[in-house]
UniProtKB/TrEMBL annotation:
Gene Ontology terms, MF aspect: hydrolase activity, hydrolyzing O-glycosyl compounds
Protein name: Glycosyl hydrolase family 2
Domain Glycoside hydrolase family 2 catalytic: residue ranges: 320-456
Domain Beta-mannosidase-like galactose-binding residue range list: 107-185
Organism: Chitinophaga dinghuensis
GO BP annotations listed: carbohydrate metabolic process
Keywords attached to this entry: Glycosidase, Hydrolase, Signal
Matching Gene3D superfamilies: Galactose-binding domain-like, Glycosidases, Immunoglobulins
Signal sequence extent: 1-22
Keyword flag Signal: yes
Occurrences of domain Glycoside hydrolase family 2 immunoglobulin-like beta-sandwich (ranges): 244-307
Length: 871
């Protein structure tokens, strides 16, 4: 007898006919760094794989490919003219979309294409599936609205049967995405990427496809594994009860079968159960059918993994994470799910699989998917390859009632969407206090919704400034205590019934030349040279092992690969270079857990060059002095000279580079200019001074002035006030600083004010601060302004000066009532003799003060009423 291939194997070879014809006009837009899969993407080959591996039917049509697109104002009607072609399903902002434009909050994105009514649609329903659209989508067929959806991460399905006619039909999709300006959960997407926040992804970013189904069809399934029993619920699209039949296969042979009613829980004992684990990711195949009056009407293929996850005590009484009744340390990484070419969307399915394979090959057994959901195929690859997944919810946008409602709605949809994947062993609710609220209630809701998984109610709770003081209150109802520690490692506190985990740690930056998104802005929590990283990482893992022995059950390293300017990865952003040789990092991880599988023979990644790139400096300097003036060469030479503190040659190379570039400058060029503005005589300084408005448009509000003031201070002020000089020549400094205009005057007055403040020269401080605040109050932070006012209160008895300082408090309060500023103003007025006015303001301050701050406010108010000094 011929051996049957498992359904999982067959699924990998699934393909669908696409109805989009390739157009030579499309091409990927330029990108700082590409991946090896970028050239493989084309209109004929845009993620052609079957998109939903746990509910597979044979009849489907992939709608990925070239669509028309247009961007209009948010409230504008559907456009008559479209602006070009976009490659679906790559986000609008991505290079692979062929567009690479930002969608602003007052914009609307439109997609259009024609679809043929499926040839097998007679007497059937036609379903239109979207893997995900960020954020709010409205869908039209032949001008008729057929449905809408809000939520950037969840799949949704529309029945478009009644809107179709024979032949060609027009499909139109409207998308509004406010990105980080709305109440929508959006993860780490922002309109202005910076630090740990990255480029936004708007519009369709997962596969779009058609499917024909009977009138009564399977619309949902629930798969719940227990120790030796598999529970399955089959739900049809309508309310009627049908007969459901489930057959379970192991390696192609049936091992269990059950019939029952749809919507009922069907329980099947699994003989000689083969548990799923990272070491042995065994999957059972499922055949699921429904019948109407004993006639089969619909069938799907699926799969299941038999596994349990729990918190139990080990032999020493430590609370630990147990997989299938066995202590399993969760050694993981923080996976952001971004790509340089596709942003939220992996360029190909093989690329999607590569990330999981890379993590497993390095010797990890866990991935924390960080405030993003992935396409169903990512979780399928986790199930198939064997990796434990901690799945974050996508952070609540803010603390408004609207944002909270949307957050909770999407949380429910997320769990429903991903509930059947055996690889997911933990749901993560809140991260580091970001828009955290009702933590206990939501943790308990999550546990009730899915009791089969661990619930991490708050990862990095120690980063939340509003956290309860009592540790017993911090992770209420959760299964884990979780702290973050950069670079770390560290350990969470021990609480009864909870395992201890380190939700984030690491963050070590290692720069890899020619594999950086933006070399000028690249950063990490700490930075080490390439040659030092392996030794540094090994030392950190040895430290982690000590914590594991003390009771730590899991740790999540930041991160598997660099992401945009965040260069904390074990691999580069383009997935080309690994920063510790693969066998070495596997060896290091064996201190914690054994590797869960061999490195596949087809897994390819290059080791990092650990030689110091600055060793080339002498040769580059020789070429420079010989007259070589290539633009990129000059830029690299200038940056290298700065690292080696050769400032004369740095300025020469920078000046030659700057002479070759023309305004308007890109962000990368402005970053270079800012970095090279090291003295008031530098060309870069002069460029910033002459183009402040243009610089601020790219770099941010007042960034030009801040940079100029830093340089003026270093050259003009600091040499004259440092050292042993007790009587600086302020007049001479003023004359020189004022030659740089208003910016020079501001840095002069600020420097003088702070100098007298720090040296406790109160007679000089009062007039200096008065002049500084009078001219530049709008540029001061409220806390700095309050600091000056408080200093006047304690150090001056002059009524006029006290009233002037109360005016500074009034400026603070114009930005909003805060008890701290009201307290300062009340004290100033009271000391100046305006008692009744002071008491009224202090009463208001007391009413606004947080409970923990009320006692000192009450004491001050009582002293005022008794005519006692408050100073």
């Amino acid at each position: 007898m011929q051996k049957k291939l498992s359904f999982i194997t067959l699924l990998l070879s699934c393909f669908a006919v696409t109805t989009v014809n390739a157009q030579s006009a499309w091409k990927a837009q330029p990108v700082a760094i590409a991946t090896r899969w970028t050239p493989l993407v084309s209109p004929e080959n845009a993620l052609p794989e079957y998109p939903r591996p746990q509910m597979v039917r044979s009849q489907w049509v992939n709608l990925n490919g070239l669509w028309d697109y247009a961007i209009t104002k948010k409230d504008a009607p559907a456009p008559q003219q479209f602006q070009g072609k976009i490659l679906v399903p790559y986000p609008l902002e991505s290079a692979l979309s062929g567009v690479k434009k930002s969608l602003l909050p007052d914009d609307r994105l439109w997609y259009r294409r024609n679809i043929d009514k499926p040839s097998d649609a007679a007497g059937k329903r036609v379903l239109l599936h979207f893997g995900a659209v960020d954020w709010q989508a409205v869908v039209y067929v032949n001008g008729k609205q057929v449905g809408d959806h809000a939520g950037g991460y969840q799949a949704f399905t529309l029945d478009i049967t009644d809107a179709l006619h024979n032949g060609s039909n027009q499909l139109l999709v409207s998308v509004w995405d406010p990105s980080d300006q709305g109440n929508n959960p959006r993860g780490k997407q922002v309109l202005q990427p910076r630090g740990i926040m990255y480029t936004a992804s708007s519009g369709i970013w997962q596969t779009v496809w058609l499917e024909t189904v009977p009138d009564t069809y399977i619309s949902n399934i629930s798969i719940i594994p227990q120790e030796n029993t598999l529970k399955v619920v089959v739900s049809p699209n309508d309310k009627r009860n049908c007969k459901a039949e489930v057959t379970v296969y192991a390696n192609g042979a049936p091992v269990a079968n059950i019939s029952g009613k749809t919507n009922d829980t069907l329980e099947m004992p699994i003989p000689d159960v083969h548990h799923w684990s990272p070491e042995d990711p065994f999957l059972y195949d499922l055949s699921i059918k429904i019948y109407n009056q004993d006639k089969p009407v619909d069938s799907i293929r699926s799969y299941a993994g038999m596994r349990t996850i729990s918190i139990m005590k080990d032999a020493k009484g430590q609370e630990r994470i147990y997989l299938n009744g066995k202590y399993t340390y969760n050694l993981g990484v923080l996976d952001q799910g971004f790509w340089p070419d596709g942003l939220y969307t992996a360029p190909t399915d093989e690329a999607l699989r590569f990330d999981i394979l890379a993590v497993k090959s390095m010797g990890f057994n866990t991935i924390r998917k960080h405030i993003k959901l992935e396409p169903a195929r990512w979780y399928y690859h986790c199930d198939k390859l064997g990796i434990l997944v901690w799945q974050d919810m996508v952070t609540c946008a803010n603390e408004s009632p609207t944002a909270k409602i949307e957050f909770e709605k999407e949380n429910a949809a997320n769990i429903e969407l991903l509930k059947n994947h055996p690889s997911i062993v933990c749901w993560v609710l809140f991260n580091e206090g970001w828009a955290r609220y009702d933590q206990q209630r939501l943790t308990e809701w999550m546990k009730k919704t899915d009791p089969s998984r661990l619930i991490n109610g708050h990862t990095g709770e120690n980063y939340d400034r509003r956290a309860p003081a009592n540790p017993l209150e911090r992770w209420k109802s959760a299964d884990l205590t979780d702290v973050h520690d950069y670079p770390g490692p560290g350990i969470a506190p021990a609480l009864t019934g909870k395992a201890r985990v380190l939700g984030e740690w690491g963050g070590v930056q290692v720069r890899v030349r020619s594999h950086q998104w933006n070399a000028e802005e690249g950063w990490g929590y700490i930075s080490v040279a390439p040659a030092e990283f392996s030794q540094k990482y090994e030392y950190m893992i040895k430290h982690l092992k000590i914590y594991e022995e003390e009771g730590l059950s899991g740790s999540i390293y930041t991160e598997p690969y660099d992401v945009e300017i965040e260069e904390n990865g074990l691999m580069t952003y383009d997935r080309e270079v690994i920063k510790i040789p693969l066998e070495k990092i596997r060896e290091i991880h064996r201190m914690i857990i054994p590797a869960t599988g061999p490195v596949p023979t087809d897994f390819k990644i290059k080791d990092m060059d650990t030689t110091n790139p600055d060793n080339r400096y002498t040769d580059m300097l020789r070429r420079f002095k010989s007259g070589y003036r290539d633009s990129s060469f000059l830029k690299e030479l200038a940056q290298m000279a700065v690292r080696l503190n050769d400032m004369p040659n740095a300025q020469k190379a920078a000046d030659d580079y700057l002479a070759q570039i023309k305004a308007p400058f890109s962000r990368s060029q402005w970053l270079f200019i800012f970095n090279m503005a090291t003295s008031v005589k530098s060309t870069a300084f002069k460029i910033i001074a002459a183009n402040k408005e243009a610089a601020d448009k790219v770099m941010g509000t007042r960034q030009a002035d801040m940079k100029l003031m830093t340089v003026i201070y270093a050259d003009v002020i600091n040499p004259n006030i440092s050292g042993t000089n007790e009587h600086p020549n302020w007049f001479a400094m003023q004359q020189k600083a004022m030659s740089y205009g208003v910016t020079g005057e501001e840095v002069y007055l600020r420097s003088k004010t702070l100098y007298h403040l720090n040296n406790k020269q109160w007679k000089q401080f009062f007039p200096a601060a008065t002049r500084y605040v009078a001219k530049f109050a709008k540029n001061l932070s409220l806390d700095e302004l309050n600091r000056y006012a408080t200093t006047v209160f304690y150090r001056s008895d002059d009524s006029s000066m006290l009233l002037t300082a109360s005016g500074w408090s009034r400026i603070c309060l114009e930005q909003g009532e805060r008890s701290l500023f009201m307290n300062t103003q009340a004290n100033l007025l009271y000391k100046a003799g305006r008692k009744q006015e002071a008491i009224a303001i202090q009463e208001r301050a007391l009413a606004l003060a947080p409970d923990q701050d009320k006692k000192p406010y009450e004491s001050t108010l009582e002293k005022m009423k008794r005519n006692e000094p408050t100073w």
